[in-house]
Amino acid sequence: MPTIQACLFDLDGVIVDTAKYHYQAWRKLANDLGFDLSLEQNELLKGISRMESLDIILSIGKVSLTEEQKISYATEKNTLYLELCQQMTPDDTLPGVRPFLEELKASSIRIGLGSASKNARVILERIDMLSYFETIVDGNRITKGKPDPEVFLIGANDLNADHAQCVVFEDAVAGIQAAKAAGMFAVGIGEASVLTEADIVVEGFKNFSLQNLLNAEM
After folding, report:
1. Which of the following is catalytic: 10, 158, 171, 199?
2. Does a structural domain hold residue 110?
3. b/e 1-19 (16+ beta carbons within 10 angstroms → b)
């Protein structure tokens, strides 16, 4: 198999579980607009940008807003989300992530983050993991959301890595599609029945090592 030059990670649901905070903030926004947001409906927001998420929520509630109102509500949601994130500590890092990143560093495999979140750096600081990432490609740097491959193409270029020798770790269907569109090996974090387009799927990093990755067909 080709040498792995770089690994690119999504943030939410891969490095840390911020889904509960997103859900609380989006649900409050929905409630303020006169309807509720279920956990099942919240799944539709995985891996996509803030404004795209807002559009989905508005369609669920059959609510129309002006662009100015949309920006105001999205800003309000993000403020609440960041307040909730202040509760985060290094203990919120998902099991096995830190040892896996240590393995990558020890093997001189470059590490980058590719996330739609505009708060990626803040969250990495809260969980004391900022130093692991040589590049952070987040919602502040991209113009196209996943499944467009832009986020991962920028990450690979930042790390001087051949696309075919990059591995992407993603928990969302749109993220897997973005990785494949970029010509990269996609590792799904979650359920194989959902992440059907991934090259391999694992539950998480708890029992996953670099050797497991090297043993996978690439």
Report:
1. 10
2. yes
3. eeebbbbbbbbbbbbbebb
